Amino acid sequence: MKLGVIGCGKMGSALVEGAIRSGALNPEQVTGCDASPEAAKAFAAATGAHIVDTIGALEADTYLLCTKPQHAEAALGWLPDASSLVISVAAGLTTSWIEARVPGSVRVIRCMPNTPALVGQGAAAFCRGKGATSTDAEAAQLLLGSVGLAVELPESLMNAVTGLSGSGPAFVYIMIEAMADGGVLAGLPRAEALKLAAQTVLGAATMVLETNQHPGALKDMVASPGGTTIAGLAELEKRGMRAAFIEAVQTASRRSAELGGS
């Protein structure tokens, strides 16, 4: 693979750094381009990749589109009329929207990563455009999987992915902050309360992923009869915590559909 990175910001850098760290790519296979010379230089320093001044100077068979959505159309106009693959992480842009703006020989994959990819713990989904092949899907899996979990889904579910794993980190940060506040209210120092809350969320998530047990079963392991945990759970249920999280994901998914025009 010869990878051309269009947009060398945090997400583009995270994906390339992850792929290089995992051995999926080496720096000689990657060239980056960004409208900001400072961003391009930082990308080169972080990854060891080459950089060029214009998209037209990229020599690649696979392009990673990491621009802001409003800049994507101008960037895509530079792509050569040659058989290549575009892997887009530009939020809300459908495969058909991208396909209408690139030469007919270009294949498209749309991705929805999330910010924990920056620390190698991302949760991402991707879908194929009409001409994308299983080999193209493997390329997307290679990049996204190097910085966390990556799953292939139908494009009709990408707005749901945006509402769940795309927006979800912000929902979890609020939960961590609130749990830490509760610890402070109970007498813990702020710094220790925050560390304990964050590690508790990390540990619980790891239990779900590594044991393959239903979260309800894991919850029941903690909630002993008449104990502290079941008392706390009863309070959360009384205040509608479960319904609030469900509606937050639904609302974010609907907003994603509005922004993408779908």
UniProtKB/TrEMBL annotation:
Domain (Pyrroline-5-carboxylate reductase dimerisation) ranges: 155-259
Domain Pyrroline-5-carboxylate reductase catalytic N-terminal: 2-92
Pathways per UniProt: Amino-acid biosynthesis; L-proline biosynthesis; L-proline from L-glutamate 5-semialdehyde: step 1/1
A GO MF term: pyrroline-5-carboxylate reductase activity
PANTHER family attached to this UniProt entry: PYRROLINE-5-CARBOXYLATE REDUCTASE, PYRROLINE-5-CARBOXYLATE REDUCTASE 3
Keyword check for Oxidoreductase: yes
Protein name from the UniProt record: Pyrroline-5-carboxylate reductase
InterPro entries in the record: 6-PGluconate_DH-like_C_sf, NAD(P)-bd_dom_sf, P5C_Rdtase_cat_N, P5CR-like_CS, P5CR_dimer, Pyrroline-COOH_reductase
Entry similarity comment: Belongs to the pyrroline-5-carboxylate reductase family.
Catalytic activity annotation: L-proline + NADP(+) = (S)-1-pyrroline-5-carboxylate + NADPH + 2 H(+); L-proline + NAD(+) = (S)-1-pyrroline-5-carboxylate + NADH + 2 H(+)
GO CC terms, sorted: cytoplasm
EC numbers on record: 1.5.1.2
Primary role: Catalyzes the reduction of 1-pyrroline-5-carboxylate (PCA) to L-proline.
Species for this entry: Luteolibacter luteus
Residues noted as binding NADP(+) in the record, renumbered to the chain: 6-11
Cellular compartment(s): Cytoplasm
GO term, biological process aspect, one: L-proline biosynthetic process
